[in-house]
């Protein structure tokens, strides 16, 4: 079954992406997923201030350019993994190198 590992990071974590030690943790994790043969996709995302939000307002749309409204956590990226069950997905999620201020949501992929 496929699961998304949805990674939320603290605003200061986006600045740490230029730190080789921080980046190395993510590279090692991505390699581990690839070597296990379970990674089917994913991507890191740029900092929230580079985003644009579109909200429907009846028949119209409201466009809000960055910075995205600040919160304690922002969407930093995701991995798609194909594993036998939720327990295996959760085990891999515990290995994501997030900071103490980040989180990982594990969600099954919608099968259509």
Automatic annotation (TrEMBL):
Extent of the signal sequence: none
Limits of the YCII-related domain: 1-108
InterPro entries linked: Dimeric_a/b-barrel (IPR011008), YCII (IPR005545)
SUPFAM superfamilies documented for this protein: Dimeric alpha+beta barrel
Pfam families: YCII
Domain of life according to the entry: Bacteria
Record-stated family: Belongs to the YciI family.
Protein's recorded name: YciI family protein
Organism: Rhizobium hidalgonense
């Amino acid at each position: 079954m496929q699961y998304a590992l949805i990674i939320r990071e603290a605003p200061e974590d986006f600045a740490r992406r230029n730190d080789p030690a921080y980046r190395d943790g993510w590279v090692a994790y991505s390699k581990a997923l690839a070597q296990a043969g379970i990674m089917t996709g994913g991507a890191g995302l740029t900092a929230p201030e580079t985003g644009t939000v579109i909200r429907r307002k009846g028949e119209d749309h409201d466009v809000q350019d960055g910075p995205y409204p600040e919160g304690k956590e922002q969407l930093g990226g995701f991995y798609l993994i194909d594993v036998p069950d939720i327990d295996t997905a959760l085990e891999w999620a515990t290995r994501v190198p997030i900071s103490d201020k980040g989180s990982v949501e594990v969600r099954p992929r919608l099968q259509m």
